[in-house]
Give the backbone structure.
Amino acid sequence: MFKLSEQFIDEYKGKQPKWGELGYFVYKRTYSRSLQNGKSEEFWQTLQRVVEGVYTIQKRHCDSLKLPWNAHKAQKSAQEMYRRMWEFKFLPPGRGLWAFDLDLIDKKGSGPLNNCAFVSTDELSTSFTTPFTFAMDMLMLGVGVGFDTTGKNLVTISTPKTTTDIFVVEDTREGWVKLLEVVLDSFIKVNHFPLIIDYSKVRKEGEPIKTFGGTASGPIPLADLIMCIVEIFTNKRTGEFYLLNENNIQDFSKFNFEFESYKITSENIVDVFNLIGRCVVSGNVRRSSELAIGNKDDKEFKKLKQNKEKLIHHRWASNNSVSCEIGMDYLEFSGDTSINGEPGYIWLENARQYGRLKDGITDVDSKVKGFNPCGEQKLESMEMCCLVETFPVNHDTYEDFQRTLKYAYLYAKTVTLIPTHDSRTNAVMMRNRRIGTSMSGITSAFQRFGKRKFFNWCDSGYSYLKNLDKMYSDWLCIPKSICISTVKPSGTIPFLPGLPPGIHYPHSEYYIRNVRINHLSPLLQLYKDAGYQIEKDESVPNTLVISFPIHEKYFNRGKTDVSMWEQLETAAQMQYYWSDNSVSVTVTFSKSEAKDISKALELYETRLKSVSFLPLEDHGYKQAPYITITKEEYEKMISKIKPVKTKEDLHEITDKFCDGESCQI
């Protein structure tokens, strides 16, 4: 085990970093782990856990291969990594802050440390259940999963053979996945469908989940998933039997399974993935994310979200994007996009041929099949990605930023040293070693440094990362990373230092950020005592709203002040100078710009790998997530607020997910 020196840690004990307005709240609610004494971590303890974990993994790797390891040099390096996290010059992703625990990693592998994954359905004919069971497995670990519909027509769905042998579901993630596998395979006659399913071993709703924290959802979401899959494949309602009886038994013995055989459809594929997502997040104890990628010529895929009943039931569970070809007519899709932001757009040709656009065609990623749910990472099938986030605006010089890049890179590269629990994923990840060194507060950096200077930082920083990757890959005796940089949308991590997420513009200079919280949360009294405005949620029962007044330090323009065209150009410039993976961008547009979306796509189809859109709406909701206020209103609210006192265990959200509000379930 690697340990930071006690003298170094003593410098930080009992202290707090310079939090953003929402920072401490988000940290304690989301990333602080429970301690054995009944309290929860403070930030100095979280960073100690993460940094010691990173360098322990490096030391183990070197020891196992009999490679050089310099303890004095490692101590000095680890201290600088810690210091740069503390100063909010970079941070691991949310998953890293929460899940980088050696006991957890030793038991579960690196799966919980990775942000996102992708799985293709192009091999359904040889391994029908694999994409679906992979997705459920990863979603239950909190990993966001993208998928495609290329498996359409590859297998025949037919009446299953049945068995009266009782299938007993084990109370584990693997047990849930195994039931899904057996049921799905029965519809292509690999297995017999179990007419009697016993869920009595599954822990009851509300009981604690030891490994990942939180509480169990009970067996009903899983039983509902199985029932819905039967409905989808048989095209019949299942009202003939109860979901579960008093003994937690699901009985299909009275159901008529007979139907005429047919080729699996893209609708079937998306529905199964979406129902899995619905099952995983049921009970509001987990969060996750999905991206569905459909063919541009698939009219069935295009209409999926037009079915309001199914949209409300389960099709909300994925953001849907269309796989595009350069030179195509986008008008067919842009009309829908102009209404609700979907579909998004994916250019696999660009993803396969290019790293950074500046470097020209390299064909380095010819095996790419799709994207993660937020669109910043191009991935092969069953590949996962580890991201890390830098904050350029928190640096005074490029030399200081370059130094930060070293430690951000080291964090992400170290995660690639740890195998996942899935051998198929390891076969891809150990070869590609793909990582994503990202940035947040990009628009703040524009304001502080100027765009041209910042793009120069990106260009020089990328070259520096490539040199680092060669040096450290040689030291660790592993392959160089196939791609190393990205722009992720970010989620709550930028709240810690108080910066706008990813490449996006802030809401306004002064605004209220409303955050929902359960009415029983121990955080409530702390923030009430500190003077924050708290009121009941007008729409959701047992929920309260805490209002955080926010002032953007490096403000120039808000999201309503920036045109669709400028946002697209900014994303294209970051794709050119920085990201060899992709750039996650949700372009907001006004009503007057909606008609030009197809024209914009024609102009940017060779300069982007993915893009999504979102209409700007004057919704007028009283408790909206973002509400513009004046400087005077901000100062009045701030004058009533006192520092928040620390307390015992406050952690309440556990499983982490693809970082980005637009792609969270």
The longest strand covers residues 510-518. Residues 451-476 form the longest helix (26 residues). The chain is about 35% helix and 15% strand.
